[in-house]
Amino acid sequence: MILSIKNLKKYYATQKAVDDISFDIERGCIFGLLGPNGAGKSTLLRMITGIFYPDSGEILFNGQKFDSEKHIEEMGYMPEERGLYKKMKIGEQAVYLAQLRGLSKAEATSRSKDWFRRLDMVSWWDKKVEDLSKGMSQKLQFVTTVIHNPMLLILDEPFSGLDPVNANILKDEIFRLAQEGTTVIFSTHRMEQVEEICDKIVLVNQGQKILDGSVKQIKQDFKENIFTITLDKSDVVLPSSIQLLKQEGNRIVFHLNPEQNSNDVLKHFIQMGNTVLAFEEMLPSLNDIFIRLVQDTSAARAFQEVK
């Protein structure tokens, strides 16, 4: 494991920001840290990067007890809030921040120019940060975060302000870095991005972990046996074993009891003289799962407080 979080707690006077959270992150994994506003995500990230110290619990980095002075150089953290010098030229800024990471000026310049080419930023080398669009400054911040080749890369809303083309460019670089062994912690509110990018996720709400696992397995765990079948015609006789949820022309959405076999439904339609054009199980989106769990845990917490 590149990172192990063990029983981490961080309390403030009126709030349990992080309340006994544990999870592990494997090397080379793209890991999603999810939760609504105020769930404790930012506090977790700040403890992982040594900005905050936990009240109790332990952080292991690459098998060793986390030491901010020793391990911070192996990390890259891109917060949602930008930390750039507005009056500096962006090329100079990339080189300067790379030197702060321990690179020589020659190596910092070489790596900066390479990243500028990768992200289609070469023509902006001599522009000032204050002249950049939100999306372009986001790309610059990404460069300054990854330029020292960190083992662990932490990205908080990395696609904020990016148009679809530039978002795809950044996405491809994140995939490339993960394939080369970089571990990525990805924090966002955009569930469709999580489904597309992340291998595993943890969901926190009100300072507590409420879900942890692979994206594929979580979607399987929360499936509701809902299927969709598309036939060559819309005038069909439905089997009595299914519960019709919706029919749009020749596309039928239905619920099947867990003890029933989907192959029997297929056989029914074929025996009735229909041609099956498409048939699939509809898995819930991460967005649906996210909303359901957050609402359930919030309601449970409110109930306990009333009691």
From TrEMBL:
> What region holds the ABC transporter domain?
3-231
| Signal peptide stretch | none
**Which InterPro entries does UniProt cross-reference here?**
AAA+_ATPase, ABC_transporter-like_ATP-bd, ABC_transporter-like_CS, ABC_transporter_ATP-binding, DrrA1/2-like_C, P-loop_NTPase
Against SUPFAM superfamilies, the record matches this protein to: P-loop containing nucleoside triphosphate hydrolases (SSF52540)
UniProt keyword Transport, yes or no: yes
* One GO MF term: ATP binding
Q: Which UniProt keywords apply?
A: ATP-binding, Nodulation, Nucleotide-binding, Transport
Q: Does the keyword NAD apply?
A: no
What's the protein called, per UniProt?
ABC transporter ATP-binding protein
UniProt organism field: Taibaiella lutea
Q: What is the lineage of its organism?
A: Bacteria, Pseudomonadati, Bacteroidota, Chitinophagia, Chitinophagales
